[in-house]
Amino acid sequence: MIAVATEGNHAIEGMADAVFWVPATEEMLSPLLAVVPLQLFAYHVARANGESVDQPRNLAKTVTVE
Predict the structure, then answer these.
(1) What is the Cα–Cα distance from 23 to 7, expressed in whole angstroms?
(2) Block means of pLDDT (10 residues each) for the chain, length 66 residues?
(3) Can you point out the beta strands (E) in 7-45?
(4) pLDDT at 54
(5) Residue from 1, 11, 3, 63 nearest 34 by CA
(6) Among positive and negative, which fits the CA dihedral 5, 9, 12, 14?
(7) DSSP 61
(8) Is 18 among the domain residues?
(9) pLDDT given at position 9
(10) 3-class secondary structure per residue, the chain
(11) CA distance readout (Å), 38 to 15, 42, 62, 63, 65
(12) Is 44 among the domain residues?
């Protein structure tokens, strides 16, 4: 299991196999900080699996013509 935790929260270390640490901040801003390591993790997993990160499959594209 992978967890995202704020720095200083050592209780999570025993519950997860790996921990992505983010700086402690205001509660309203913490989701913005937590999403960064998750996006990087997803990027590197996709690259390791040989997936195209620039053109994902099944992505609906919208074209607006004026």
Answers:
(1) 5
(2) 90 90 91 92 92 70 54
(3) 18-22
(4) 77
(5) 3
(6) positive
(7) -
(8) yes
(9) 87
(10) CEEEEECCCHHHHHCCCEEEEECCCCCCCHHHHHHHHHHHHHHHHHHHCCCCCCCCCCCCCCCCCC
(11) 18, 6, 26, 29, 35
(12) yes
* Residue 37 included in any domain: yes
* Residue 17 domain flag: yes
pTM, full prediction: 0.68
Whole-angstrom CA distances from 7 to 22, 29, 36, 47, 57 are: 6, 14, 15, 28, 36
The answer to whether the beta carbons of residues 38 and 22 sit under 8 Å apart is no
**pLDDT computed for residue 22 by the predictor:** 93
Residue with tokens 């200083």: 8
